[in-house]
Amino acid sequence: MSGYSHPNDPGGRAAVELPRLPQAGPLYRRALLGALPGAGRRRGDVLPGVELTVAGVTVDRAHLADYDRVCGFRLTDRMPATYPHVMGFPLALRLMTAPEFPMPLVGLVHVANRITVHRPVGAGETLDFRAYAEDLRPHDRGRQVDVVLVGSVGGEEVWRGVSTYLGRERAAGGGERRDRSERPSAPAATAHWRVTPRVGTDYARVSGDHNPIHTSRLGARLFGFPRPIAHGMWSKARCLAALESRLPDAYTVDVAFKLPVPLPSTVALSATADGAAWAFALHDARTGRPHLAGAAR
């Protein structure tokens, strides 16, 4: 691979061109080995000064259909808003498993995600992706960082995703704080879904995100969960699948991931329209505990 200064990058990041998308499996294995006692080292306070790029990524239509089924989307030739995240995820994963990334991948918590769809993207289009990290900032439980993934077609940006991750640290302090105010009661549900343990393994298969907290009871327990939890991006995709016939061709959808969805469980979707915008939320159907809050506009 080659590195050079990106002339249009105000952050001065060096663009690193990869010949193809990385394989997620070896990256996860590297991250897990790095998490073993005695294998780690103190991470720095500076983000990697690179922007990873890969060109000519095409869609495997069988994979797209499998993804649609797992997340509840209709089978069409148009990519769901969340699908480019899956396509380019190995590039972001390569960035987050680099030795110079300031927080170890294992244990990172995905706390928020924003996707902007500039126009519909067809399954027959070829995308170029770039990924970089920005805005490393303190949080009362550690540090947060944004990982940005951009998809382009023919030099035109058609899709952008920003994933916010929290790295929990013992000596945390300052920065954004958790909202510890009393939770409002859950809004009226428009749909109920039974989320089975298979959701964890099925979404891991179609997304390439094989974090063991989603697929293994032992892996979940190692990170403080009594049983596996659903991927946050599955929850977001499932909500968008319920709204897909009501969303415009171009929009931005923000979600904040609240409490994890344990597997198995039953969740309740609530969605309300305000003109062309939608507010939606996912709660535990029995207790009302919030899992996700989002808005599409």
UniProtKB/TrEMBL annotation:
Q: Out of the domains of life, which is the source?
A: Bacteria
* Pfam hit, one: MaoC_dehydratas
Matching entries from InterPro entries are given as: Fatty_acid_synthase, HotDog_dom_sf, MaoC-like_dom
Q: Region Disordered: start and end of each range?
A: 170-192
| The MaoC-like domain, residue ranges | 194-276
Give me the stretches of Basic and acidic residues compositional bias: 170-183
| UniProt-listed SUPFAM superfamilies | Thioesterase/thiol ester dehydrase-isomerase
Which protein, by its recorded name, is this?
MaoC/PaaZ C-terminal domain-containing protein
Q: Which PANTHER family match?
A: 3-HYDROXYACYL-THIOESTER DEHYDRATASE HTDX-RELATED, 3-HYDROXYACYL-THIOESTER DEHYDRATASE X
Q: Which protein family is named in the record?
A: Belongs to the enoyl-CoA hydratase/isomerase family.
